[in-house]
Write a structure and sequence with these properties.
The protein is mainly α. It contains 18 helices and no strands.
Length: 419
């Protein structure tokens, strides 16, 4: 009961616009139905080869990289409102149109363009959080957004599995319509709404940027970014080859696959906040990240030790815990290493590491399956996770979470004593 009260009261005091930004993400991510089932759709419904499937999935990652960079540039030049609105609206229209395309070339180009639109939302939304949230609550506002994304991802695959079992075209319609619905909600609430944090600090920020170093001149952080991409290659098998494994090896229905994928989002949504703030103040970030990376590999190796639905459930639970132990702390480490003048650059490179991983992961995964087997894929991912964990062990400094995280935990615990 105490944990539940801590969980709920941690988010008290957030501004209404911060909640609305999270609501927009929740609506948007609740329609995340195409990505979890894309590999199955391409291979079983359209009869594409593993290589063709891997190419389209990799182009999805290329679109993510381009969209993230473009979204950040457009947000700085034209503001976050129109970037977010158009990203949601055009992405929604794109998903609806994609269900009409069945050629390899058309889908390769179409998914690339749709991902450019949808992933332009991410940097714009992050910038909007900094504009509309109370300055003392910005970290919690970001955490609220991550929770909204994970809750949405627990809803999307679950609903997508049911719709895909009827017809795959419905997951495209559902994904598109939720994007459009999110754009309408966003437009109605934020149109002509002035940011809470006015840009009076712009000159000072530009001066800091001019004095700060680039992450490209920080060799240890470049190695850190490469290791982050390595982790992403292992973790992103969740979205690419794992659904194929469920279908090809276990012959699971789309609805059952949806349940398994939804379990990931639900566990992260339920456990991440208390676990992150609890462990991050007691153990070093390096220790938590290394353990989490090893658990990521272990979750895949688990598939090779036996067969049964219980194996799939336990593996997904391990993978979800590993995500909680790695992703928030890698972000925290990046934030700690940067300063006020170059934090955006460091976080930008950190985001690009995942985009690169999303390009490499499906190509490598499908290649290993084609020339070997799923067993080879899972052993390879386990081996790669060991290499990445050792790399982080020697690369990361032995530090704890930023003081801000400790302050937030203390603040939340203090509020429990309030009437």
């Amino acid at each position: 009961m105490r944990i539940l009260r801590l969980y709920l009261k941690t988010y008290r005091g957030l501004s209404a616009p911060a909640w609305m930004l999270a609501l927009v993400l929740l609506i948007n991510r609740s329609g995340s139905m195409v990505i979890p089932f894309l590999s199955i759709y391409l291979k079983t419904e359209l009869n594409f080869t593993l290589q063709e499937t891997g190419i389209i999935l990799s182009l999805f990652g290329v679109g993510s990289l381009v969209g993230s960079m473009l979204g950040g540039w457009l947000s700085d030049k034209y503001g976050t409102f129109w970037v977010q609105f158009l990203a949601l609206a055009l992405g929604g229209i794109g998903f609806i149109l994609l269900q009409m395309v069945q050629s390899f070339e058309g889908l390769a180009f179409g998914f690339f363009m749709v991902t450019v639109f949808t992933d332009a939302l991410r940097p714009a939304n992050a910038a909007a959080v900094a504009q509309y949230a109370k300055k003392e609550n910005i970290t919690r506002a970001f955490s609220l957004n991550r929770m909204a994304v994970n809750l949405g991802f627990s809803i999307g695959p679950l609903a997508g599995g049911v719709l895909a079992s009827i017809s795959y075209k419905w997951i495209f319609y559902a994904d598109g319509l939720t994007c459009i619905a999110a754009s309408i909600v966003f437009f109605l609430y934020f149109y002509k709404r002035k940011p809470r944090n006015a840009p009076e600090e712009k000159a000072a920020t530009q001066a800091l940027k001019a004095q700060s170093s680039s992450p490209f001149r920080d060799p240890p952080y470049l190695a850190f970014a490469a290791l982050t991409a390595g982790f992403g290659i292992v973790f992103f098998q969740l979205f690419n080859t794992l659904p194929l494994y469920y279908r090809d090896v276990y012959q699971l229905s789309e609805s059952t696959i949806g349940w398994l994928l939804a379990l990931n989002g639900f566990i992260v949504f339920l456990v991440e906040m208390p676990l992150v703030f609890g462990l991050g103040t007691r153990y070093s970030l390096r220790s938590l990240v290394c353990i989490g990376v090893l658990l990521t590999g272990a979750s895949y190796i688990f598939f090779n030790v036996g067969m049964g639905l219980w194996i799939l459930v336990i593996a997904m639970m391990i993978l979800s815990i590993s995500e909680i132990l790695v992703m928030p702390y890698l972000t925290t480490y990046t934030t700690n290493r940067a300063d006020a003048g170059n934090r955006g650059k460091y976080l930008g490179m950190y985001s690009m590491s995942y985009s690169v991983a999303f390009i490499v992961a499906p190509a490598l995964g499908t290649l290993l399956i084609h020339y070997g087997s799923f067993d080879l894929l899972w052993w390879s991912m386990g081996a790669l996770s060991v290499i990445v964990a050792v790399g982080f062990l020697y690369n990361m400094k032995d530090v704890h979470a930023a003081p801000e995280a400790s302050a937030l935990l203390h603040e939340a615990e203090t509020r429990l004593k309030e009437p």
